Amino acid sequence: MERIQKILRGRFVLGALSIAVVLAAYQWITMQPDNNPALLPPIPNIIASFFTNIEAGSLQTTLGASLYRIFLGFFIGTTLAVIIGCLVGWYKTIEYLVDPLIEAIRPIPPLAYIPIIIIWFGIEEFSRVLLITIACFMVCVVNVIAGMKNVPQVYVDAASTMGASRFQVFRTVAVPAATPFIITGYRIALAAAWTTLVAAELIAAPSGLGYMLQEGRRYFLTDQVMMIIVIIGACAFIMDRTFRAIQKRLMVWSEARE
Amino acid sequence: MSEIKVNNLTHTFSKGTPEALTVLEDINLSFPSGSFTSIVGTSGCGKSTLLKMMAGLFDPTDGEMTLDGAVIRGTDRKRGMVFQQDAVFPWMTVAKNISYGPRIHGASKAEQQAAETKWIEAVGLKGFEDRWPRELSGGMRKRVDIGRVYANDPDVLLMDEPFGALDAQTKERLQSDLLETWRQTQKTVIFVTHDLEEAIFLSDQIVVMSARPGRIRHIEEVALPRPRSNEMRLTSEFLDIKRKLWNMLDH
User: Which residues cross the membrane (chain A) (predicted)?
Assistant: First the structure.
């Protein structure tokens, strides 16, 4: 136990150290006499931009708008992915019916849908959420299907020979056995949600983090651009960590260790 | 009553091979109610295939099997199976694994609890109720497998080299414990193994099979007295049977 604590502490210290070195190097460059702060804003300016935007309330509204889109798109997309993925992965008939369709659509990057979505639905909230939903669904469903297909046959046979019906095997064996894959699907979907969100907001949004990035570019507010990049990184990081914690909780039975 | 009969069974694998491969030919067997029968033979004699068909995991090409006169088709809780591989569900604790059968058959919470208490005790896992399978040794996981099948109360137990992956000492312990459970429950057991000593130690009757195609070569009635003890493994009666059967196997 003490050893583990020691290693963790070492890991934490080293991680913090590498970040500190990069920040210090960045700050040192900005302090050079020939640096143009409009291109490379010093760290204090970036922090100042953060507080200015908080005071004006714009950062909160922006963050709220973006998080709302992420959560809604992520929730709908992954829920559909789990339902459809489980059915496709478990029932042969449904697989033959739906899998070719998924395979055909899968290689298309979700951002390619932006023009058609704008044509059909306009630059509306619905369009952005729809795009994130599609992105989350596509990456998640593939993992769910893989999970269902990788259920060890011996578990299925064991349950069947104890008299479990096909549906009972599905519910009590296949789904729990596929959980590691499903959770991985969720985590990849979350990353996809962020990518798609920022892209969608850069192109077509009156609010949101992507919009604020675009605004920063237009008015040459480099410190604001930098600040938003950091905010996006921090939010995505926090969400991923939260997921990892949930994963650990759900997967106490698993042999896999990080 | 729970007697399994195999009548004129032939099985051919035709999938994925250019020529159909006959794995089992003209098998006729009878497993009396409450008896302990082992099926031995070198690999490729189709003994596992035969057992899986009795479990209902797939159907024979020709011929049929019956349990108390009813033709076996598909899996059923009456015919429980213990596999060579680890089949303990890793996402359930030991106790939840044990009560899996009763649970899916709609047993009440109290009944599930009773099954857990009874069978955890019977297979010697007391104190490990709330452990995850990953925390157990291979031998203990096998105990969970066996307890789980017994807790489901089948008429017949089909065991497919259940102790194949265990070390010698653990194997002997589990064999003795299995005999004790069998004595108490008097359920028909059909036990597939390639280990002659294991077969002789456990069984009333040993079916010796030859390979390619799998046929019955000999049926040995084991006259050794019960209860069997580990010392018996070295007696001349025991070794005589072993020598006789050994000479019958394809080497």
Answer: 12-29, 67-91, 103-123, 129-146, 188-213, 219-239
